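task queued by scheduler; priority normal; single chain, no ligands, no partner chains; default sampling; output format set to structure tokens
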Amino acid sequence: MQRNSCKASVWTWCSKRLSQYGLFVVLLLLLLAAWEAIVRMGWVPSFIIPAPTAIVGSLIEHRRLLLTIHLPATFMEVAVGFGISIVTGITLATGMHMNRSIEKALYPFIVISQTIPLIALSPVFILWFGYTLWSKVAVVFLIAFFPIVVSTYDGLRRGDPEQRELLLTMGASKWDIFCKLQVPLALPSFFSGLKMSVVYCVVGATIGEWLGGSKGLGYFSRRMSSNMNTDAMFAAIMLLSLLGIVLFALIAWLEKRFGTRRHGEKK
């Protein structure tokens, strides 16, 4: 009985996902088939763009090196940089929301930090931190904290004036209004910033590894590119893309779970 119930739930989940993403899956399969056919027929040289089957074959061939050394290294850089970005982003956004002077002093610097090319700063970070984890984390942080700061700050400013007045008439303090009104209203913007930021983290880690790394998927891709091994290079790129997709999906799942729980609490 329990087994039948489990099968039914799995079938329901699969049916729901197919109804949501069925067109995407069909289009993806068609694109992969066309890609494979174009390379097989020699319209595009395989050393420029390898066939999908060749990329998968290279991934299987280098699976031990990619999955046990380079992927964990990139994930560690992303995780540490993303964690620091969340703490810093929330702190800065809250401070700017609470104090107008902090906003006037820091917001221009936050914007300026995004105008400096990362390619130019990466050698500086290598000079400061060496070829260690922290030189890559610095690149990840610089590219990832901005969406969190801006989205959280904008979300906190969207407080409903009528609800605010109601809470004030009931004797609520500024802290009560912040926790019970402004923070819940800011959550959608906050999670939107997280979803953008976690994808940028993968980009930042790759840039850091390209310019100064001894391991990681970006480093592996650069090494394979210099060796003209495009199959292995695209295998690393595929893993980077999958890592970004998985992390994005994880944040989206957390957003859905947290939003559902809060909706249930309100009811």
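post-processing summary
- The longest helix spans residues 2-40.
- The radius of gyration is 23 Å.
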